[in-house]
Specification:
Radius of gyration: 16 Å
Number of domains: 1
Number of strands: 0
Organism: Halobacteroides halobius (strain ATCC 35273 / DSM 5150 / MD-1)
Number of helices: 6
Coiled coil: 7-62
Shape: elongated
Keywords: Coiled coil
Strand content: under 5%
Protein name: Phage protein
Length: 115
């Protein structure tokens, strides 16, 4: 899945991006001389989060989004078999892999070149 590496990295770090953004907003209140650097980092995180959320909005809420949430948005990358063997994705493993590839391709088309 080398063609999706950067996209997968962004998805798996989404939770960290959100946490860091919250921390930056607090730091900016008391920043002083570091304000410009923190503001740039905050801007970049907001851009990344916005891209991820725009891509997620384009997904089918039932099947596609639930797969991506279970696979990548938990703060770590979960193993495929833990997802298709669970109630999170109530379809066969072959259907799981088909949907996973479709979702990654859809996200790549929508936001991949912007990452």
């Amino acid at each position: 899945m080398g063609e999706y590496d950067k996209l997968i990295n962004y998805l798996s770090n989404y939770k960290q991006f959100k946490s860091r953004l919250e921390a930056l907003e607090i730091q900016l209140e008391y920043a002083g001389e570091l304000e410009e650097e923190l503001a740039r980092e905050k801007e970049e995180l907001e851009r990344k989060i916005g891209l991820i959320e725009a891509g997620l909005d384009a997904l089918d809420q039932d099947q596609e989004l639930s797969l991506i949430r279970a696979k990548y948005l938990q703060g770590k990358i979960n193993r495929d078999n833990l997802i298709y063997d669970s109630r999170l994705f109530p379809y066969s493993s072959s259907q799981y892999y088909r949907v996973k590839r479709q979702v990654l391709e859809k996200l790549k088309e929508n936001i991949g070149d912007l990452l």
